[in-house]
């Protein structure tokens, strides 16, 4: 069963959704699932140097009470999934194009899942800047990729067009928010709907 998981690594709901997908697949150990992590950008115009997270969310959510409520909900949900969200530390939101290039290259080495998990953990739990090439190289090395090759590739525009083309295709298919899990090209689950929603869809398609 092929699962195309469309995400952006600076989307908290994508981190939640990934954990829910992991748990759903663990609950179906006999299922041979091939998960492809696909790119999406919520902020394609984010500058290379990043933008301050607090300022960004203050503009996006002028109703601070609503923002606090949303983060509290995310924090509680995260704890139930083993995620410790840090929304308070100083942090820069990155343009995620380079991170998505790394995820694409990780597919060839069979370590996409490890790279996606590490990127999200570093951003949401350690408040790291995902636009830093040295961080991306470190993520790659820890997953078992060739650090020098990744460092050299990041200093080029290799696969920029392919990643942007995938994002454009997702938008053409109607993806307006993430995560979206497309199962065997037949059904899609939009948003972090929970473990049961994923296992139910898997079971229906298997039948």
Automatic annotation (TrEMBL):
* DSBA-like thioredoxin domain span: 3-202
| Transmembrane spans | none
Segments forming a coiled coil: none
Give the protein name, as stated in the record.
DsbA family oxidoreductase
Pfam families for the chain: DSBA (PF01323)
Biological source species: Kordiimonas pumila
Q: Which domain of life is it from?
A: Bacteria
Q: What PANTHER family does the annotation carry? A: GLUTATHIONE S-TRANSFERASE KAPPA, THIOREDOXIN SUPERFAMILY PROTEIN
């Amino acid at each position: 069963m092929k699962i195309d998981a469309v995400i952006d690594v600076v989307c908290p709901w994508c981190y939640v959704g990934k954990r829910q997908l992991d748990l759903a697949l663990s609950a179906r150990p006999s299922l041979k699932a091939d998960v492809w992590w696909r790119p999406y950008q919520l902020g394609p115009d984010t500058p290379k140097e990043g933008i301050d997270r607090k300022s960004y969310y203050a503009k996006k959510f002028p109703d601070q009470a609503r923002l606090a409520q949303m983060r509290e909900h995310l924090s509680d949900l995260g704890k139930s999934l083993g995620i410790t969200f840090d929304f308070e530390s100083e942090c820069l939101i990155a343009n995620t194009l380079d991170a998505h290039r790394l995820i694409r290259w990780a597919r060839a080495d069979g370590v996409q899942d490890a790279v996606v998990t590490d990127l999200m953990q570093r951003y949401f739990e350690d408040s790291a800047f995902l636009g830093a090439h040295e961080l991306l190289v470190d993520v790659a090395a820890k997953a078992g990729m060739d650090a020098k090759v990744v460092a050299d590739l990041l200093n080029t525009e290799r696969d920029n067009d392919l990643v942007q083309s995938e994002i454009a295709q997702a938008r053409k298919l109607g993806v307006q928010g993430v995560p979206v899990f497309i199962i065997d090209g037949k059904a899609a689950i939009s948003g972090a709907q929970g473990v049961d929603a994923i296992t139910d869809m898997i079971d229906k398609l298997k039948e």
